[in-house]
Amino acid sequence: MKALRLSAVLAASVLAATAMSACGSSSSSDEGGAKIAFLMPDIASTRYELFDAPLFKAKMKQLCAKCEVLYQNANSDAAKQQQQADSMLAQGVKAIVIDPVDSAAAATIVNSARSRNVPIIAYDRPIPKARADYYVSFDNEKIGALIAQSLVDHLKDTKAEGGILQVNGSPIDAAAGLIKNGIHTAVDPSGFKLLAEYDTPGWDPTKAQNWVSGQITQFKGQIAGVVAANDGTGGAAIAAFKAAGVTPVPPVTGNDAELAAVQRVIKGDQYNTISKPIKTVADAAAEVAHAFAQGRKPAPQVTLFDTPSQLFTPTVVTKENVVKVVTEPGFALKVADICAGEYKAACDELGLK
């Protein structure tokens, strides 16, 4: 993955999208009302309910009016996700799109689907221990490198002193492992000491906040910044500093550009987040699932974990570029929602209206 060049990734994305569009241009009645499973991992992150599922359903409807999307969320329970997958197979789905709760345990789901000739599309998180039929995601290792390097550069520019805390994602999530690896590529050679790091079970913000609270006590006055792997853990870190009465709160990263995180960036409480236009991956996954439902194998742009894959490169969002990012076509959040209530003054100051 590290060898990927952005230009090659973007070019391949265009080619793949073109091929997919051609595949999807056939009559929507071809599938005869095929059922497609869309299995998401948790509700700790708001994105799955608010964006991924609705966007995937909308794209599938556009591609195949008679197809039916069967959506379920496992609420961070790997056993529950296994049951959901088994139920989908029993209902005769033509493809399963899955963002696994437990990347290792999901190998069983892949094998069960393979025994019934049902293609599995890994979504957002890979399944390293079993070869899925396809993987669609943003480049997770790149995400880790981008948020961490952005923080390191800021700390150097501001001549900050002290070390860095690293709040990783779930230890059973392979995507979290990729993000973690990417973070280390920026933090390890930065010259800033890595004070401590934590793998957050289930991406649970409460557990992340409790851990950061303990580190604030242990490393009092020594924390220059925090690299948090997503907006939930980033918001939790910020809450821990505020609860401890630390002012100003050290710069904290994030990832996913959730509403609360974008508002924190605008207000200055969170240093950065990552804009991953979810429509990009949701549409791509729908294109892939539609192709498989038609009995076609979509061409990959790269191979990751021995799986044909399509990876997209996201954008780091800081206070300096947040206005540009949130006003770009396709950004999921509305300015009216971002700038509501207490955030209006900060938006007005940035010229975001």
Automatic annotation (TrEMBL):
Pfam families xref list: Peripla_BP_4 (PF13407)
UniProt keyword annotations, A-Z: Signal
Subcellular location(s) per record: Cell envelope
Location of the Periplasmic binding protein domain: 36-297
Signal peptide extent: 1-21
UniProt protein name: Substrate-binding domain-containing protein
Organism: Actinomadura alba
